[in-house]
Amino acid sequence: MIILDGSIVTVALPAMQRGLGLGDAGLTWVVNGYVIAFGGLLLLAGRLGDLLGRRAAFVTGIAVFTLASVVCGLAPDAPTLIAARFAQGVGGALTSSVALGMITTLFTAPAERTRALSAFAFTGAVGASLGQVLGGILTDALSWHWIFLINLPLGLATALAALRYLPSERGPGFAAGVDALGGALVTAGSMLAVYTIVQTEQHGWGLRALGLGAGALALLGGFVVRQATASVPLMPLRVLRDRNVWGANLVQLVVVASLFSFQVMAALYLQRVLGYSASESGLAMLPAAAANAVVSLFVAARLIGRFGPKTVLVTGLVLLLAARLLLTRVPVHGDFVLDLLPIMLLTGGFGLAITSLTGLGMSGAKPEDAGVVSGVFNSTQQIGGALGVAALSAVAAANSPGTSPEALTHGYHVAFWAGAGLLVTGIVVALVVLRRVGPATAPAPVPSPSSADVSAPETVQL
């Protein structure tokens, strides 16, 4: 639900513009308000989950997200909608930042945890892929309001299930120490970094972007210095000493940048070159969503258990690279079955890649750091997605000598080549940086919290 909301609005934007009288700037903020809040608050939200208890943070985030969704669906004007989208991002950050942390502490047996991470990867991959599909269907069949209102029953069901099945976990509380300065620096720096990326779609990569980027780097640099000197740091720098942790985050950055830009560029190619409607282009993306669902939920865990996460990761990246190379050859008068369906099916390699990366990225997390490591991993995903869409959209626009189908296709080809280059970078980093983890122990188990802090969960059969 939370990942899906990052993309579900894209095909409904024209209907929102007509219904609320939104200008182009306001329309941009409907998307970017959510992305900035979500990406900027993930690390701080993860630490709050560690301190206050992850179930409490998870349920609170769901409540905020669901309430904000209702306000979005009932919004009478543009300012209300944009403010509610920002609130959705706050709730989404609080929930997403602790989800991986809960998995690492609830599932300690290697095979069990790999299956749990596969289920987690499944929800993320399919949610991202289905956003445009559901957005088009709900907008055409009902109205744009329902892309938000549908979250009410889903949010209530999720909160009730969390209260029923998740163990009540006690964090050490604020008495353990809160790095308020570090929180302010990383939140401001992250938000400014995401804003720098998303504003390039409207203002380009000129002096404005360079100035904002320099400010974001200064804030994040100050955050790193603060973490090295604070008595109780928000993000202990020890979590980044593990090569698999920082290597997996770096690989994820470039892979997600390539995947998210593929979703946008492919949708634009379908609509602007092949003449598909919003609903038709969404449905055309269904094979990619189905391939990701099958691979991440039923295939990835078994392969990781047999060959280890590094081998499975590289295999998934090679499949994604093959899909991007085929995209550089899509014709102006393309046939879906012959030219696009094989590409959609090869995109199932993301299910292999993200499941492996999730396990590797969380492999070095101690119980007390699980929330912040989860926040780092999710932050990397959001920044990678925003960077990829902004950068490759600019590449496509700069290389489209006009608005004819031929000119647009040429620009998309160049952007797809850039996306392929990102995947090559990811493969190189995976081969050089990541350590090979044996299939029998992948990923390394994290000791579960003591029974004094966490009540014993019921056995869950995945």
Largest sheet: none
| Beta fraction | under 5%
Query: What is the general shape?
Result: globular
**Low-pLDDT residue spans:** 440-462
Terminal residue distance: 20 Å
Oligomer: single chain
The domain tally reads 2
Integer average pLDDT:
77
Pfam family, one: MFS_1
Domain Major facilitator superfamily (MFS) profile: 1-438
Subcellular location: Cell membrane
Protein name: MFS transporter
Quick tags:
462 residues, mainly alpha, Growth Hormone, Chain: A, disordered C terminus, MFS
Description of the molecule:
The chain contains 17 helices and no strands. The protein is globular and about 60 Å long. The longest helix has 32 residues, at 110-141. It folds into 2 domains: 4-170 and 234-441, Up-down Bundle (Growth Hormone, Chain: A); 179-233. With 462 residues, it is an all-alpha fold. The two termini are 20 Å apart. Residues 440-462 have low confidence and may be disordered. Helix 8 (180-203) runs parallel beside helix 16 and helix 12 runs parallel beside helix 14 (336-346).
Give a short synopsis of this structure.
The chain is an all-alpha fold and 462 residues long. Helix content is 75%, strand content 0%. It has 2 domains: 4-170 and 234-441, MFS general substrate transporter like domains (Growth Hormone, Chain: A, Up-down Bundle), CATH 1.20.1250.20; 179-233.
